[in-house]
């Protein structure tokens, strides 16, 4: 599977397909990528729509809260760098930035919502 | 970027000379005089407009989008070269190009905050058109500030979506911003009505931002998040001061310097100080190490602005000293960014791009 269907996304985590052995390392890696202003991980903010891992490819589908955000490339770079640290050397990383479905606050984790006073 | 930095320096020198600060300059140059006369044009169109347009061009990733900041920066240079007519109309073209970029943003994401960014760009165009057509500064400057305030409000609105929104919050924001645009337009007919509407809208917006921005929550987090929140909250305070000063000026008190600079320095520059540690790496590809030293220029800015705006009206020497402190704060902030970039390089060994990332055009 080369790309993920963003509509598969759920409220507070992200859909994962691939070997179980890589699930935890990939999720931990993504949880090390921080939105600097709110000091929350991109997983807690709900920016990760899904991850699909095949034999030689990790495909991350994610969004940003704003299409006018110039920091998108930096965050994508951080995602690539963190995944790079945990993946076997032969695996490629592909990060797709999508705008549909649009991010909403419903995607935030319970922990993030609690911090923001929901 | 060097060109933008040069426009900032020229604009600051123009502001210092206006405030009566003796700046050592070559005696045979004509540009300082032009910088004095066109301080607002250089600061809003030449520097801030260019920075905002670069930020948006980086976000949309279309090479043509860089035409807007290139045009606004060139407009600043033309003005300093004495070609004020060409500069004024080039600024009009820059804002038209910037509107086109924002239409692209809205087409990618139809949301309230992207729509506000587009309206902000339109306010810049109105201000630039009035300026090019020879309108009085009193009628032009509110439109230029509306451009900046709408842009900031849109970016903060995006972040407030992380908070639970109370019923009526969005309507209250749109009412404040609508009032600001009405005030901007009213200045051409009646400075008194314009001042009242504009001042009320700024004070209302300050109250809205304090109530609904995430800053009141993120100030509890240590590190960069707290620094950003402190900048934001201080900026909102100055926004409220500015609103009151616009109203006081409309009534007849001599608070025009406070109205303009509580807004331009207290609010807008605070927002720039807040966002720079995150935005600068995205704009120029240089990573920064955050540290407590970021607070130094912030303290200098707010202390000097307090002296300028609260004590300056009664003593011109204090106004000048405050203005010099404002310039020192900006210089200290540039030095802080350079120091933070060096600190990051020292801390990190030469990093490579990831071993196996596939480049994707986003």
Explained architecture:
Chain A has 118 residues and is an alpha/beta fold. Helix content of chain A is 31%, strand content 20%. Chain A has a single domain, classed as Fe-S cluster assembly (FSCA) (GMP Synthetase, Chain A, domain 3). Chain A has helices at residues 20-30, 42-45, 72-86, 110-115, and strands spanning 16-17, 34-35, 40-41, 48-53, 57-62, 92-97. In chain A, helix 1 packs across helix 3 (72-86). In chain A, 45% of the residues are buried. The mean pLDDT of chain B is 93. Chains A and B meet through helix 3 and strand 6 of A and helix 3, helix 6, helix 7, helix 11 and helix 12 of B.
Explain briefly what this protein structure is.
The complex is a heterodimer of chains A (118) and B (362). Chain A is α/β, with parallel strands linked by helices. Chain A has helices spanning 20-30, 42-45, 72-86, 110-115, and strands at residues 16-17, 34-35, 40-41, 48-53, 57-62, 92-97.
**Main sheet summary of chain A:** 4 strands, mixed
Number of helices of chain B: 14
Helix content of chain B: over 70%
Helix content of chain A: 25-40%
Gross morphology of chain B is: globular
- Assign the CATH class of chain A: Alpha Beta
Task: Say how many strands of chain B there are.
Answer: 0
- Contiguous uncertain segments of 5+ residues of chain A: 1-12
> How many helices of chain A?
4
Brief descriptors of the model:
heterodimer; A: 118 residues; alpha/beta; GMP Synthetase, Chain A, domain 3; two-stranded antiparallel ribbon; B: mainly alpha; 77% helix
What secondary-structure arrangement, pairings included, does this model have?
The complex is a heterodimer of chains A (118) and B (362).
Chain A: E1 16-17, H1 20-30, E2 34-35, E3 40-41, H2 42-45, E4 48-53, E5 57-62, H3 72-86, E6 92-97, H4 110-115
Parallel strand pairs in A: 1-4, 5-6
Antiparallel strand pairs in A: 2-3, 4-5
Chain B: H1 2-18, H2 31-37, H3 39-60, H4 67-80, H5 84-108, H6 112-132, H7 137-160, H8 169-186, H9 191-212, H10 215-218, H11 224-251, H12 256-284, H13 295-311, H14 316-347
